[in-house]
Specification:
The chain is mainly alpha-helical and 90 residues long. Helices cover 51% and strands 7% of the residues. It has a two-stranded antiparallel sheet. The radius of gyration is 15 Å and the shape is globular.
């Protein structure tokens, strides 16, 4: 974790995390951090934004490409259910 994230002034509310998640999921192209921040329906503090992205990445919901900084939504619980219902061994 970066130093900025370790010194958290306040933690994001659930509705703010969900807003960021929905914006990533609905994006037509994979956004960068700057593009995503601009695309949010409400403005949020940059520190809060980074904390949310850190949480989403650690919970395996997104991947941030190291090469070009694009954010990709990878969480697919319905896909996991389909695999489990087919008795696949993971």
């Amino acid at each position: 974790m970066t130093k900025a994230i370790q010194e958290v002034l306040h933690y994001p509310r659930l509705d703010t995390v969900l807003m960021v998640e929905e914006t990533i999921k609905k994006a037509k192209e994979y956004p960068t951090k700057a593009e995503l921040l601009k695309a949010l329906p409400k403005q949020i503090m940059y520190q809060t934004f980074l904390l949310i992205l850190d949480y989403l990445e650690k919970s395996n919901k997104i991947i941030i490409d190291k090469k070009d900084g694009k954010i990709v939504w990878i969480w697919d619980p319905e896909g996991v259910k389909r695999f489990l219902n087919n008795d696949l061994v993971i």
